[in-house]
From TrEMBL:
It comes from Eleginops maclovinus. This is Guanylate cyclase activator 2B. The keyword Nucleotide-binding does not apply. Its main location: secreted. Endogenous activator of intestinal guanylate cyclase. It stimulates this enzyme through the same receptor binding region as the heat-stable enterotoxins. May be a potent physiological regulator of intestinal fluid and electrolyte transport. May be an autocrine/paracrine regulator of intestinal salt and water transport. The keyword RNA-binding does not apply. InterPro entries: Guanylin, Guanylin_sf. Pfam families: Guanylin. Belongs to the guanylin family. GO terms for molecular function: guanylate cyclase activator activity. It is found in: Secreted. It comes from the Eukaryota. Residues 1-21 form the signal peptide. One of its GO terms (cellular component) is extracellular region.
Length: 107
């Protein structure tokens, strides 16, 4: 019984470490899955996800948001940030689905 509980505890911990280790690469930069999820929440709350990526006016509103994780600031300073942020906002949230994308590592 104790061995079974210990095994389950180790598996749960390993799964949580794995999900935290997932990195999404975009435009030469690497972002945590948690950061990408927060970016998606910000774009959803501003209604930006409903627009076509080609029609977006710019990254000003997302990049100026104080709730944006600090790891995205270097991306906001790059040329083409709008397209990169749009691609990141389209990444599936489910860790099992995200492993199908070449931009994701640590799965």
């Amino acid at each position: 019984m104790k061995t079974t509980l210990a095994t389950i505890a180790v598996l749960v911990m390993a799964l949580s470490w794995t999900s935290e280790a997932v990195q999404v690469e975009e435009n030469g930069l690497s972002f945590s899955l948690e950061g990408v999820i927060r970016l998606q929440e910000l774009t959803e709350s501003s209604g930006a996800r409903q627009q076509s990526p080609r029609l977006r006016a710019g990254t000003g509103s997302v990049c100026a948001d104080p709730m944006l994780p600090q790891e995205f600031l270097p991306l906001c300073r790059q040329r083409g940030a709008s397209a990169s942020l749009a691609r990141l906002a389209m990444v599936p949230r489910d860790v099992c689905e995200i492993c199908a994308f070449a931009a994701c590592t640590g799965c």
